[in-house]
Automatic annotation (TrEMBL), chain A:
Domain ABC transporter: 9-258
Keywords: ATP-binding, Cell membrane, Membrane, Nucleotide-binding, Transport
Species of origin: Pseudoflavonifractor hominis
InterPro entries reported for this sequence: AAA+_ATPase, ABC_Ni/Peptide_Import, ABC_transporter-like_ATP-bd, ABC_transporter-like_CS, Oligopep_ABC_C, P-loop_NTPase
Topological type in the membrane: Peripheral membrane protein
Identification of the protein by name: ABC transporter ATP-binding protein
Domain of life: Bacteria
Family in the record: Belongs to the ABC transporter superfamily.
Localization (cell): Cell membrane
SUPFAM superfamilies: P-loop containing nucleoside triphosphate hydrolases
Gene3D superfamilies xrefs: P-loop containing nucleotide triphosphate hydrolases (3.40.50.300)
UniProtKB/TrEMBL annotation, chain B:
Pfam family, one: BPD_transp_1_N
The family this protein is said to belong to: Belongs to the binding-protein-dependent transport system permease family.
Transmembrane segments: 12-30, 100-123, 135-155, 175-196, 232-253, 282-303
Keyword Membrane in record: yes
Domain ABC transmembrane type-1: 96-300
Lipid bilayer topology: Multi-pass membrane protein
Record keywords: Cell membrane, Membrane, Transmembrane, Transmembrane helix, Transport
Protein name per Swiss-Prot or TrEMBL: ABC transporter permease
Entry superkingdom: Bacteria
InterPro entries: BPD_transp_1_N, MetI-like, MetI-like_sf
PANTHER family: INNER MEMBRANE ABC TRANSPORTER, OLIGOPEPTIDE TRANSPORT SYSTEM PERMEASE PROTEIN APPB
Location within or outside the cell: Cell membrane
Keyword Zinc-finger: no
Species of the source: Pseudoflavonifractor hominis
Length: 347, 316
């Protein structure tokens, strides 16, 4: 399949100023997002995955800013956008977002219908009765029964899963090209999670959306993603198709991450966890950020930052282990057999 | 909701009954000397007659019963000292409009100035140097920290000296109202600006505001439709009480500008042991305070859909 790039990020740097100190949150990320794909960005808390996608919509907190690099979308460089007016041509209209916690992301004092209508009026140019009819249609699309009655209700009259459907309805009502789902199921009941993911998948097909999932839940990733980008300490350390990252991971951090899958745990034994803590991004990171926690670290890992080594045209990883001169290090035994162990696309 | 209001009103009546009964009984414990101007010179018979005239010769429960049966006819009795033989209701009816006119004007000004000030301060917290917020905070701290009596005097002093405004109020001349209204408004300006700013800052950090931004809603519309509206809800509860408090007048401002309002009336009649007026005022103040809270709660329920009055539906 011919891939077309819809969004292209080059050497992006994001810094935050906190009490006079500078935190280097995103350290030179480059990424191409393909039209129509589902890309999952995984990483632990604080790895910068949310911050990274927020830069696409100009939603960084006021103490943070893009200090270098570019974000190409539709021939424009979004990294150069500064005003609310410029961003409004992107927000909702081109790129929409589903946020993590549906309990707090709706205005408690406005009816569901009003909140969806706000998006429709802004982005579809409809008004009055037409807009209202569209609200009902969108509600039905996201699987909410009795849309007429429900549209007049307030968020507190909805359950968590239902609210997330409403948040998705709002995002879709904007008719975006790209949908960013920031931990869309984290705050939900396990039984609801699958339904919400299925809903997003259906809408993606129907509206020809490109979706970017941000998550730390590899189960979610396995379920929905075409490609996976693994983030660590403000950088993408490995990126590839879902198959490649799950079954042929190259970066020691990806190994460690996969080893932490509870499905791999042996009854009676403690679950695997990665030793140590992520680097302090207030300080300059030297070499490979993961080196101090990496049992396979080489000397050079502490000195020089590894470049990307291409494994296949779709798969690359930032680790010196892929250098031809590096000693042969095999990934841990248990994750080599993920496929046989039944940890497949339906984890 | 009607059922809830009815229940609240019944409970309010009970509260009023308790307050008035206690105050009424306590007043009867006061020494009888206070009832007469020249008690020392009076004979026992004269005292007896005097008490009878005041209706104080009967046992306490009988007096209470008399009071309540009169009350049901809208009669609070007559003043016996403050303004002899003038009905208490008439005294209140004459004074309330005076206090209210000044109070409501100043409250209107306070809202008209305080709310925009709160909005501007909240917006300013998002700017780099937060100058607007700092200036506003300085003003609020000043008004809250300096005792009202002090800045009332400062206003009167400079107002009369440099702006040549009159010291005494006179009903035909609007200029004479400027200084007292200003004095009364300052406190409320600070109060409303402070709370609105605080609630707006709280609201603007909430997730739904972020979602509204992500939706592409213009910043001005977010501030107006989402943040202000939601931040105003908790304030709605205070406004009826603020309005009703104006009925009580301000002791200090009214005496500074010789305003014939409610302010100081209660203190005055207590000092002179004019029991009927004291009772009447206590009843009046208690009633309007309770009403203020009730109206506040009802307004709150109207603007916040999460509040319901039924026990079964149980709020949020």
């Amino acid at each position: 399949m011919e891939t077309e790039t819809i969004l292209s990020v080059r050497d992006l740097d994001v810094k935050f100023t906190l009490r006079g100190q500078v935190l280097h949150a995103i350290r030179g990320i480059s990424l191409d997002v393909h039209r129509g794909e589902s890309l999952a960005i995984v990483g632990e808390s604080g790895s910068g995955k949310s911050v990274f996608t927020k830069t696409f919509m100009g939603l960084l907190d006021s103490n943070g800013s893009v200090t270098a690099g570019e974000i190409r979308y539709n021939g424009q460089d979004l990294a150069g956008y500064t005003t609310d007016q410029q961003w409004r041509t992107i927000r909702g209209r081109e790129i929409a977002m589903v946020m993590q916690d549906p309990m707090t992301s709706l205005n408690p004092l406005k009816t569901i219908g009003d909140q969806i209508e706000e998006a429709i009026v802004l982005h579809q140019g409809l008004k009055g009765a037409e807009a209202h009819a569209q609200v009902l249609k969108v509600l039905e699309e996201v699987g909410i029964d009795q849309p007429e009655r429900r549209s007049k209700q307030y968020p507190h009259e909805f359950s968590g899963g239902m609210r997330q459907r409403v948040v998705i309805a709002i995002a879709v009502a904007c008719r975006p090209k790209i949908l960013i789902c920031d931990e869309p199921t984290t705050a939900l009941d396990v039984t609801i999670q699958a339904q919400i993911l299925q809903l997003i998948k259906d809408l993606q097909k129907k509206y020809d959306l490109t979706t970017i999932y941000i998550t730390h839940d590899l189960g979610v990733v396995a379920n929905v993603a075409d490609r996976i980008a693994v983030m660590y300490a403000g950088d993408i350390v490995e990126i590839g198709t879902c198959e490649e990252v799950f079954y042929d991971p190259k970066h020691p951090y990806t190994w460690a991450l996969l080893s932490s899958l509870p499905q791999l745990g042996v009854k009676g034994e403690e679950l695997y966890s990665i030793k140590g803590t992520p680097p302090n991004l207030f300080l300059e990171v030297k070499g490979d950020a993961f080196a101090p926690r990496n049992p396979h670290a080489l000397k050079i890992d502490f000195v020089e930052r590894p470049p990307y080594f291409e494994v296949s045209p779709t798969h690359k990883a930032r680790t010196w282990l892929l250098d031809p001169r590096a000693p042969k290090v095999e990934p841990p035994e248990h994750i080599k057999h993920l496929r046989e162990q039944g940890v497949n696309r339906h984890v | 909701m009607a059922k809830y209001i009815f229940k609240r009103l019944l409970r309010s009546l009970l509260t009023l009954f308790i307050i008035v009964t206690i105050v009424f009984s306590l007043l009867r414990l006061m020494p009888i000397e206070g009832y007469f101007q020249n008690f020392e010179k009076m004979s026992a018979v004269q005292v007896e007659l005097g008490l009878k005239e005041l209706g104080l010769d009967k046992p306490l429960p009988a007096q209470l019963l008399d009071f309540y049966s009169d009350l049901l006819h809208g009669d609070l009795g007559v003043s016996n000292k403050y303004r002899r033989n003038v009905p208490v209701t008439k005294i209140i009816a004459e004074k309330v409009p005076v206090s209210m006119a000044i109070g409501l004007t100043s409250l209107g000004i306070a809202l008209a100035v305080g709310l925009p000030m709160g909005i501007l301060m909240a917006r300013s917290t998002r700017t780099k140097h937060k100058i607007g917020d700092k200036l506003g905070t300085a003003f609020i701290v000043l008004i809250q920290a300096v005792p009202a009596a002090v800045y009332y005097l400062v206003i009167q002093f400079y107002g009369t000296k440099y702006l040549d405004l009159p010291m005494q109020i006179s009903s035909g001349r609007p200029v004479t109202y400027i200084l007292p209204i200003l004095s009364l408004a300052l406190g409320n300006i600070a109060y409303y600006a402070m709370w609105l700013r605080r609630y707006m800052v709280d609201e603007s950090n909430k997730d739904y505001v972020k979602l509204a931004r992500a939706k592409g809603v213009p910043a001005s519309a977010i501030s107006r439709k989402h943040v202000f509206r939601n931040a105003f809800v908790p304030l709605v509860q205070f406004i009826p009480t603020s309005v009703i408090l104006t009925l009580m007048g301000s002791l200090y401002v009214e005496s500074l500008y010789s305003i014939p309002g409610m302010g100081g009336l209660l203190v005055n009649v207590i000092q002179r042991q004019d029991n009927t007026v004291v009772q009447g005022l206590v009843l009046f103040y208690a009633a309007i305070s309770i009403l203020g809270l009730l109206v506040g709660d009802i307004l709150m329920a109207i603007v916040d859909p999460r509040i319901t009055f039924g026990k079964k539906e149980g709020g949020r």
